[in-house]
Amino acid sequence: MTISPDSTENFLFREQVVGSRRLSNYWWASIIFLGAFGFFIVGLSSYLGFNILPFLNATEINFFPQGLVMCFYSLVGFLLSLYLWLIILWSVGEGYNEFNKKEGTFCIFRWGFPGKNRRIQLTYALKDIEAVRVEIKDGLNPKRALYIQIKGKPDIPLTRIGEPLSLGELERKAAELASFLQVSIEGLQ
């Protein structure tokens, strides 16, 4: 989160949100594509009756049913890989959270999937913000999240999905935001 100064007062608090252009998405899109390509080569080799790649021995595999299933798995893998590459290309989930004291607004902006609702923008009044809430769950599936509580609305998550923050970083962000907004922090003991 960054605070942008203007003249003598800090009135703008803005955090960029990465969205789908994370290293893990590039990794999985590539791995799934390579796996699907491998399944396709094995399935095609079993159909043709000879090895397309010399290090893959597919001559022992019958096309029906094993080679056909390999081709089916390759199709599913290619489609999943295509989906991942498209959400990376479209920057789905990328955007920002902005708190503007000068205008008295809190804005959440995200890019969605192409179409008429590609731009997702929610705007609330700063006076409606009740607190900054921290949620920490330990165990097998730990969760560390930062939320904004708004009067009469469900809590709005501010942290990214899939990239948990360290406890120190979560507490620092919560304290920085609560100090900027002059509201309390809930959920920390």
How is this structure best described in words?
The protein is of the alpha+beta class and 189 residues long. The chain folds into two domains: 24-90, no CATH class; 93-186, PH-domain like, CATH 2.30.29. Helices cover 37% and strands 30% of the residues. The protein has three helices and nine strands, in the order E-E-H-H-E-E-E-E-E-E-H-E. The protein has helices at 23-48, 63-90, 167-181, and strands at 2-6, 9-17, 95-100, 105-111, 119-125, 129-137, 143-150, 156-157, 184-186. The chain has a five-stranded antiparallel beta sheet with strand order 1-2-3-4-5, covered by helices on one side. Strands 8-7-6-9 form a four-stranded mixed beta sheet, with helices on one face. The longest helix has 28 residues, at 63-90. The protein is elongated. The protein starts with a strand and ends with a strand. Residues 3-8 have low confidence and may be disordered.
Number of strands: 9
CATH topology of the largest domain: PH-domain like
Q: Helical percent range?
A: 25-40%
- Secondary structural class: alpha+beta
H and E string: EEHHEEEEEEHE
| Radius of gyration based on Cα positions | 24 Å
Strand order of the largest sheet: 1-2-3-4-5
Regions with pLDDT < 50 over 5+ consecutive residues? 3-8
The largest pleated sheet is described as:
5 strands, antiparallel
Number of domains: 2
**What is the CATH C level class of the largest domain, in words?**
Mainly Beta
- Number of separate helices: 3
> Alpha-carbon distance between the termini?
23 Å
CATH architecture of the largest domain: Roll
Which outline best applies? elongated
As a percent range, the share of strand residues is: 25-35%
Task: Round the mean pLDDT to the nearest integer and report it.
Answer: 89
